[in-house]
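Researcher: We're teaching a course module on how sequence relates to structure. For the next exercise, students receive a sequence and then see the predicted structure as tokens, so they can try to spot secondary structure elements on their own. Here is the exercise chain.
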Amino acid sequence: MRPYQFKSILKEIKAGKLSNRYYVSGDSQYMKDMVKSEIKQRLDLGFEDFNLDEFWAMQVDDPRRIFDAILSIPVMSDRRMIIINDVHKLPAKFKKELVGFKIPDTSFLVLISPAPTRGQMDYHGKFKKAFKSYELQPPYDNELGTWIMEFVKEESKKMGGAAIGLFTSKVSLSLLAVRSELEKIYSYVGSRAEITRDDVLKVVSKSRTATIFQFVDAFGSRNIKECFNYSSELFDFGESATMMIFWLSKRSLEILQIISMLEKGASTRALASKLRVSEYWIKKYVSQARNYTSREIIEFISVLREGDKLIKSGKMGQKETISYIFGKLATIA
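Model: And here is the predicted structure for the students to work with:
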């Protein structure tokens, strides 16, 4: 999602007719927090201690407490707000009851959920139909630069193309993390308006792009412990298990191709030409190919396909799937 698209949502909440039932889904925590805040400001709750109830589904021992909160009367205000975080984790019967529940005009219910997996699409579709719905996804790589420009502009600062390009290669796709890293840069440059590429180099230490290469190189080196470590860092950067499976599949196919060509006596130059990389880099790939046999790589590609299906079907979570994949790799011999 681009900044102008998100701004139109906030503008709609500020100026449009308020709904008393919202369903806010997606994986951008920054956007979801902003939407919650905007709705709360618009409602003007007065005494929040009495008129705001916020629940986290997994911590609710008795979901009936949620319905009691919805039916409660506002205190010294015309409105009250009820927020249910991670609503997808509520028992199915309570999700079903929420869809058709008659909410008093004085209560405003906001349901918060991550983007649904394939196995969660049923409740997702029902909530979208019964509630005012917003789907808020983190920006893609090609959208992140516009968000950075927008954030920098809010601080009356400037950031050139070279600095933005370097910054986007280093930071997470999470807008909360982007804002956090920008705050460090603001503190570093002080009153200076221009943020340079050197400022980014000095302040932002970790690199998302570098971690991706380290992750696939750890797989190529058959260092499973490092695979786990780098996958954890990538999750912190906001990367998905689906993308990790894509990178692992790409490197697996490259290794399989190298093994096949080496068996036929191909030269380093021929390998570099076929894989479209320099002869310098092909030496590393050849070294990695020597850690596997064709049978092992073919077996691992099957594991990757299985992992992809587990995620898309909703049968397994993202981190759990990556652990499963590398657990399987450890047994392949």
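Model: If you want an answer key for the exercise: The radius of gyration is 24 Å. The beta strands are 21-25, 52-56, 80-85, 107-113, 132-135, 158-159, 194-195.
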